[in-house]
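Example: Protein SirB1 N-terminal domain-containing protein.
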Amino acid sequence: MDNSSARKYFYQEIQQPDEYIDLARAALYIAQEEYPNLDVEEYLNALDAMAAELEERLPPQRYPLRIIQSINQYIYEDLRFTGNKIDYYDPRNSFLNDVIDRRLGIPISLALVYIEVARRIDFPMVGIGMPGHFLIRPDIPEMEIFVDAFNDGEIMFPQDCQEKLAQMYQYPVSIQPEFLAGVTKKQFLARMLTNLKYIYLSQQELEKALAIVERVLLLFPDLALELRDRGLLCYQLGRFSQAANDLETYLDITPEAQDAYIIKRLLTKLGRY
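Written out as structure tokens, the predicted fold is:
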């Protein structure tokens, strides 16, 4: 399969209403641009098989905490999924096929495996876009139990989340309600893609970074910073017409942006300002 087909399938998947988007399928279409021969159905079947095995191990009384404990034992003890703390910025940590094959991932990709297995046993969970560290929780109203998929399914409460934030930022942090709010499926995919974008930028893989930004813009076409980044990447890659169009749009949307002066200078070089 060529990259354009994978991109087309990704676009078709995300055009559905958010609740109907298949997160795993969309994530595998993201991976398919990196691995053109990837068999999406094979990995969806692998998730089905995991859920079928887990179903046989569930307790008769399906209280949420007991289900979470069963999922944790299966994913982390039996299958030996774990967070890749040694090579956190390996791009493979963000591709669902690699995560399933290698049993290694980062918070959001391990959360995806957890969510997809849980969904298949009729225990829906939702992603929580906490700053700096992605979590999940049961999709049950008023239930403030969070699961850290990166750390062997550690069960956390709001106070634990606040302590983790303080630990990450090295100063006291007041937990805000939006820190523990659920994310939509499109937001989930955008966060996965953004992780990959920064990895590719740090590695100077500009073509790959551009491909990632283009997919974020398929999800959210009006994101000003992504339009800017696409323009800057196109400029670096010598695609000056596209660069100028994106950078002009960025200034139209955010005329008071802190980097407006720099963008204007670039547009002057491109003969547009």
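The chain has two domains: 3-180, 223-273.
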